């Protein structure tokens, strides 16, 4: 209790508190140098890009699913067209023609999606064109001295 009575607040609220948002500036982060990036653990293994290969396989799966979708709906469309030719009721004929139009619209959507995914996949795989150049830069900038291991307590 005696310590609390003798304690005074030496601060001035005007000096230590900010009045505007512009009074406070965030500290800018220092960008790592090329040698620091090259000396990171497993830097050459990161160059192989397992995440990009994983993304590539997912894109391939999407293209395959769109192809399967295209095949299923092609058979459905052909069977509906045959039934539409045999149908004599005008109401059912209208419904079948609406379904056929929607299936054709899905065909167009599927083709566009498949083409765009394949184009994106090609663009992603172009990243590996620079792999040898980046590996050369990493090998030139890595330090030759072994890193000291600190004793862990």
UniProtKB/TrEMBL annotation:
It comes from the Eukaryota. One of its GO terms (biological process) is negative regulation of transcription by RNA polymerase II. Its main location: nucleus. Keywords: Nucleus, Repressor, Transcription, Transcription regulation. The keyword Transcription regulation applies. One of its GO terms (cellular component) is Sin3-type complex. It is found in: Nucleus. Residues 2-139 form the Histone deacetylase complex subunit SAP130 C-terminal domain. The keyword rRNA-binding does not apply. Belongs to the SAP130 family. This is SAP130_C domain-containing protein.
